Amino acid sequence: MSPAARRRRKRWSTESCNCRRRSAGREPSSVADATNLQALGAAIAEAAGPAVQEVFVERGAELVLRTGRDTLVPLMLLLRDDPRFAFEQVMDICGVDWPERAERFEVVYNLLSLSLNRRLRVLVATDEQTPVPSLIGVWPAATWYEREAWDMYGIVFAGQTDLRRLLTDYGFEGHPLRKDFPLTGHVQVRYDESRKQVVNEPVTLTQDFRSFDFLSPWEGMTTLPGDEKVHQIRSERGQIEGPQS
After folding, report:
1. Does any domain span residue 184?
2. 89, HSE (Cβ side, Cα atoms, 13 Å)
């Protein structure tokens, strides 16, 4: 390789290192991120007025708004259509159960702005009977998430015409992610050999037939399937060779 080629390679590698160093120097700090989120929250609260009940930043990196059921849809339209916010997508809708509260459920909306590279969480509180307005008119993709929240928690969404079971079976009783839902459930499924079909029946867990193994799998496992031949060979070898001194 000629000296000119070696010098050319060294020059390009030097520029690459400088580029990485310059880009790393422009990375924003966490303090700057929290300040930007607080400024964004203040701008949303000013634009939305009384629709925003509370604004705060969690863990220094997550902007959260709290609103009411009556103001949910106007607030979401503002967040979607205002170019200062431009939250074009709803990424997820889920529920949280707080049984000790009067309004035990929180509906959590996670929004994303692709154009501005921002995320936002909106919280709405409700109880077991009071419905939350559906967002299918704002984001049609909300149908799937609202069905899931209704199936798992029993949260009702007003205006949602497709509230069907999504993750549980047809005829399932109750909502399994409520904290007062029994861990065993209400129904057990088994195959009935006499009827030649799968049957649903009430849960029966008899204490006498329960067995508790407190050993770890490695402590309780002395013989693996297929080791019988190995033990047989070792036994025969020991009989032939006799005990070793």
Report:
1. no
2. 10
